[in-house]
Structures are given as C-alpha cells and as structure tokens.
Amino acid sequence: MTGAIVMQGLSKDYGSGHGLFDLDLEVAEGEVFGFLGPNGAGKTTTIRLLMGLIHGSAGTATVFGLDCDRDSVAVKREVGYLPGELPQFGGMRGSEVVAYLGGMRGAIDRARVTEIAERLELDLGRRFREYSRGNKQKLGLVLAFMHRPRLLILDEPTSGLDPLNQQTFHHMVGEVSADGATVFLSSHVLSEVEETCSRVGIIRDGRLVSDMTMDRVHELRYHEVVIDFNGDVPEGAVRAAAGVEDVAVDGPRLTCTVHGGFDGLLAAISGHTVADLVSREPSLESIFLSYYSK
Amino acid sequence: MPPRLLLRLHRIGLVAMAYLGIFYVLVNSAAFPLIAGRTRASQEAFGHSITVLGATFSWLLPLPMGADTAAGYLQWRGYGFMAIVFAAWGLISACGAVRRDEDRGLVESLLATGISRLRLLVSRSVFFAMLSAEIVFLAGAAGWVGCVIAGSPAEVSGLVGESAALWGLTLASFGIGLLVAQLAADFRSAAAAASLVGLLMFLLDSIGRSSIQRAPVTDISVFHLFNQSNAIAPRGTFDLAATLALFVVAATATVVASVAFVRRDIGAGLIRTRRRRAPDVHVPSSNPLLRTPVARGLWIHRLGALGWTAGMAVAAAAVVLLVNVTATFFASTPSLSPYLRGLPGSVHTVLLALIWLSFAQALVAIFAITVVSRWSNEDSSGVLEMQLAEPIPRWGLLGERAAELTVIVTVMSFVAMAVILALAPAEGIPLDVGRLLTATALLIPFGLTFAGVGALLAGWRPRAAVVVLSTITAISYFVFELGPLFKWPALADNLSVFQLYGTPLITPVFVGGLIAMLAIAVVGFGSAGVMLARRDVAA
Q1: Chain B partners of A76 at a C-beta cutoff of 8 Å?
Q2: Is the Cα torsion angle B148, B153, B157, B163 positive or negative in sign?
Q3: Dihedral over alpha carbons B199, B203, B209, B210 (to 10 degrees)
Q4: Domain end among A218, A245, A269
Q5: Which candidate from A48, A108, A117 shows the least CB-CB separation from B282?
Q6: Structural domain total, chain B
Q7: A57 in B contact zone (CB under 8 Å)
Q8: I need a labelling partner for B23 at 20 to 30 A (CA). Which of A89, A186, B242, B476 fits?
Q9: Does A117 touch chain B (CB under 8 A)?
Q10: Residue ranges making up the domain that contains B96
Q11: Portion of chain A with pLDDT greater than 70, in percent
Q12: By three-state DSSP, how is residue A58 classified?
C-alpha cells in the first residue's frame, strides 16, 4: 500500500499556542482513518490544510503524491469533502446546489446522486433554507460522495444525523472502502470511529498524541471491578496481582481496574469469601476521556 | 440585548444613513449660493424657477416654499428627498431586525438566553430610535452648518422641528415595518411587502398632494403627516399634532407588532401558506446553466440582476422624460446658465448627458458595492470554502466573478441605452447614437474599476471591504459633484473615478481616464488574485 495522505512536520501556528504543530502522519490507500480529538484540538485545521484552504506554517502534506498547497486543484479532483458546517445556500434547492457544485467539478453522475439521496431519504426538491440541520448534513454527504472520489475527507460527518442515517453513513463508508477508496474522517464520537475506522489518530492541543490501529485501541479496554468481601479484604495480594490497577478499599468493599485477563485478580482473591462481584466494561468514550485527561 | 451587538446588527444602516443624511443635507444647503448665485436678484430668479419646477415635481416632493433662500431650498430638495430615504430605511431595517435575524437563527439564540420576546422587540426598537435620532439630528446640525456656509443661517427651532418630524417618520416606518414583518415567513417576502406598503403610503400622499380635491383617505399616509411640517423654510410651520401623530403611529404599530411576535411561531409568519405536498426529488437539477462557468453565477443571482436592470431602465426613462422640464428650468434660471455654457451640443443633449450619466455611474457604482458585499459574505458564510473545495483554481473563481459582474453591468447599461433610444426622439432630444453607444460601453470599465478595488479589499480584509469601498465611492462621488462647484483643482477632481469616466455623450472619450480605469481594474483584480491565493480561506 502507498500513502494516500502523507503529512510531515505539518504545522499551522495561529499564535498563543493555538494551531497544529509538527504533525507526522501517513494514511494508506484504502484505509479508513479516524481523527479524534476534543473541540479545538486541531482536527479541522488539519483537514483545511489537506484541502489547501489554508497554508501551513511549516512542513508538507501530500495526497496521492500531490502537494496539498501547490497542487491543490489536482488534489481536489481526487477528494470528496464534507466541511464541519455547510454554508447557507439560501433559496437554492438541494438539486440546484448539487448541480452547481457538481458542475464546478465537471460531469455529474446523476445515478450516483439519486442513489445516495434515496439512501439518506433526502428530498433534493426543497430549498436549502427549509432544510433541518440533519438534512443539510445529508446534502453535504451527497456532495462529498457523489463523484466516487478516491479520498473522502469528512469533518464530523454524522453531526446532526439521526441514528438510522448514521447507520446508513457507516454502511456507505464501508462500501467505498471496499471499493478501494481512502477515508479520513474527524470526529469526537468514539463509537462512530470504532464502527467505521481501521486506524485512529488522537490529537490534543494541536499535537498528535497517539496513532494506533483499532485492535490496539481495543487493547486499551479495561474492566472496573467492585468486590464485596465477607471477612478480610486481601488488599495486598490484589495490589500485587498482574494487570490490576487503581486499587481502593472502603470497609469490606474493594474497587480496582483490570487490564487484560482476570487470572491475576482471581488468584489474589482465592481463599477469601466474596459476597458480591460486579465487573463493568467502560465505553471507549470513557477510556478516551481518561486518555485525554492524562 | 448588549448595545455592542445591537450596534453591530445596525452597522450598515448606521454608516449608510450617516453618510447620506449628513453629506446630503450639508451639500444641499452649503452649495446654495453656487447654484442660485450670490446676489439677491439671482436668488429670487432661482427661487421662482424652483417654484415652477416644484409644481411639475409635486408628485415627488412637496411644493417648494421660500426656495430663494438656502433654508427653503434645503427644506424642498434636502428634506423632501430625505423623507423617502429615511422611511425606506425604517421599513427595511425593521424587516431585517425581525426576519433576517430570525432567518439566520439569531432570534432563536437570543430567546434561548431567557430574554422575553417583548423585551427583545422593545430593545431593538428603542435602540433603533436612539440610533435614528442621532443621525437625524446630526443631519439637522449639518443643515445648520450648511446654511451658515451659504451665508443665510436657518432658524435653529425650525431645524429641530423638521428633524423631529423626520425622526417621527423614520420611527413610524420602523414600526410599520415591524408589523408587516410579522406576517411574512422570511426576510425577502417581508422586505417586498414592506416596500409595497411604503410605496402605497407614498403614492397616497402623492395623489393627495397632486389632486385638486383631496380625498381624506390620502391623509392616513405617514408621508402626509411628515409633510405637514416645513419648519426650515422661511415662513414655514412646524405641525406639532402631525408630528405627534407620527410617534403615535410608531408606538401603536410597535405594540401591535409585539403582540403578533408573542403569538406567532418563531421561524414562521402570522400568515402561513399551506405547503403543497410534492413527491420527493432525488436527482440533481438538469439546468445546464448551473454547470456552465459564469452562467451559473448569473442564474443564481438572476433576480438581483433583473431587478437592477429594471431599475436602471426605469431611471433612464425617468431622466429622458424629465429632460424637457429641466431644460426649461435651466433656461429660466440665469444663475444656472454658466453650467451649460461652453458644453457642445443642444441643451437637451447636454442635460441628458449630465443627468443620465451621473445617475448611471452612481447606480453602477452602488451595484458594484452590493456585489462586493456578496463576495465578502460568501467568504464569511463558508460558500467560498465550498466553492474552493471543488477543483477550480482561486484565480479562476475570481475571473468568474469579474466576468459575471461584467455581463450584468453590460446588460444593465445597454438595456437602459435601449430605453433612452426608444424615448428620446418622442421628447425631441437629439442623440448621437455612436456617442451613446460609447458612453454606455464605458460604464463597463467604470463598474470594473469599483469591482477591482472591491475584489482587492475582499481578498485582503473581507469584513472591512464593503465599508472601505463605500467610503471610497462616497468620497469619489462628492469630489466629482462638489469639485466644480467649489472650483477645486483639477488634480483633486481627477482623483474621482467618476471624473475619469468623463462626459462621453457630449465630449470625446477621456482616453487618459479610460486607461486609468482599466489600470485600476486590472491592478485591483490582479492584486486580489495574489491576495486570495496567499491567504487562508475559512480560517
């Protein structure tokens, strides 16, 4: 596989510590890459740099070997783009917005537009100003997907979509990925990334803090365990057990987190009378919240 | 609502009306001796001519009174015209306060903060009242200064009274606009309905003023109430009852509008049209124009382009029809004869050239400003980001914008020319078709000059582009208008783009001016291309 997107030392300094700093990242062709981070982390700045809408302060970004700044027109021929927020097209009908922006690109695949609009249940006959937030987002998805791009760059793609349409979107991403397209999507909703992406990058304060496969993400999973003992609490043994962290004791109750298997914990408490044991797996959201807060 | 936010929401009206109100009043009073002459005899002759002319224009302005003085002339030409403009401002500003802010979600956001609907509407109205009061009374002060410059100071009490009447008219229009805007579902329909109401009120007063037997129904117009005062003119009166009635109209309309605002749904008008249930559409528009460069922009902005073209055509027709009346006025006013002396061609042709071309230039310049305003808006609203997300170069987009503007200015200008060609023979105005064609064609580089400067400003500082371009245009226009009156040096005159255009209907083409206009346009668009390529979009 070759790099569909390659960023080397990419920076955009807005001053006062804001912006994007020294981003090194490569997304392979055919990969679905999730770009995660809290608001203001630098996700949209990265996307706008890739689209050649803003100019970097340092470093380079290429898409299919084309420089995003110098060859931005050629880059955009290969890209389907969904901005974080669609602008106001006022009294234009959805069908006219599609024809207008599609016309700027060249030929329009009418069958493809119809297919996506039907799947998303979007009425293109209505005026833009009449669209709800969700319908505007659907129109944005039509615009991004309609020309079967080699690369999709999507900024918060499911924002405003209802769960059914979110599901449709996940299917659409799966299909274009199966056809060989690359997808770069930003989000702060981990479940969305979990459902669609094969790899994830985490950005915080303008810096990439992690780049890992979803398998590795799943390895970050852990269980929160609460055990109520009848009699002595084997605190020492539990603290010494492999994979057990964050041990706390409150009377007969012990709480801890368990990473990986439960063998170590079970060995530590064997021989003690357990009145109750509850194990809970936190959502990936919670896992990443704790990751962000570190 | 925070005053800073209110100020921001009304900034365009504030800047435009301050410019217009203060400068217009100042010019129409200070320049009086320059057009009426400095001797008492010439001023009396001028006043007589204005009285005759005023009778012809009674459908547009109230009859002049004491027009042989700066104060009387200011009353007739200054405040007669200002009444129309300030009433229009009040109506459209109210529609913007209600519907435009609602269309863009601002009203919803403000109401979500816990502010009551009543308080929201009242705070907008009170702020507008304060803002309009400042502008109206500053304009009154400018009128006083202008009369002092003219050498015949106006009565301060008269200026205060007339300013109060103008303020009342503006507020009454604002209140009526607030009420009308409650009925419509969006800004466009609200503005159209309010304009119609404004026109109706104006016509009622106009009919009443021009009729021999006045029908009482014509007295309900707010323009009629305003015109009851002519306090600036010598021997004029201030009608306190009529002025108070204007404030009562304003208060009543605002109260009724507040009740309607409280009762209706946000995002909908009081009058609702049932939406026809049509089958869903899942195909893109097959309109080929939307896929064709330049044509797509023309199609999207077709309504505005048609409106401007129609407006320019109507203006051309009005000017042609007024040439004979104006010629008679000039012939009977000795102080004005020097302005036409030495100019080649018949008086009618000269007047058509002077009046129409300065009118056409002003319209084309204002059109260019509105287009630049749209470019700036496209930048801040994200439309530019979407356009540039498509595989077209930035300079290509800029070229498309310039081409679109060129086509519309061309159509506007040549449709107006066709109207002039059609009407002029019937009015007995001799025309050189070749020169008219040249003069019309020269409006294109003239428009591109403003657009080039505007494109540069929009490429550099989109948010400031409209204000800066409007300022440049206003200064340029006043230099052009006032330079000859005050005998400013030619160097100052030539700083005006209006001056660069020349008078191609009666004199040979000003080649230097044409080259300068083309150079400004080319440098403007060229620099705009560089600016746009270098700067961040959507940042």
Answers
A1: 389-391
A2: negative
A3: 140
A4: A218
A5: A117
A6: 2
A7: no
A8: B242
A9: yes
A10: 1-28+83-271
A11: 95
A12: strand
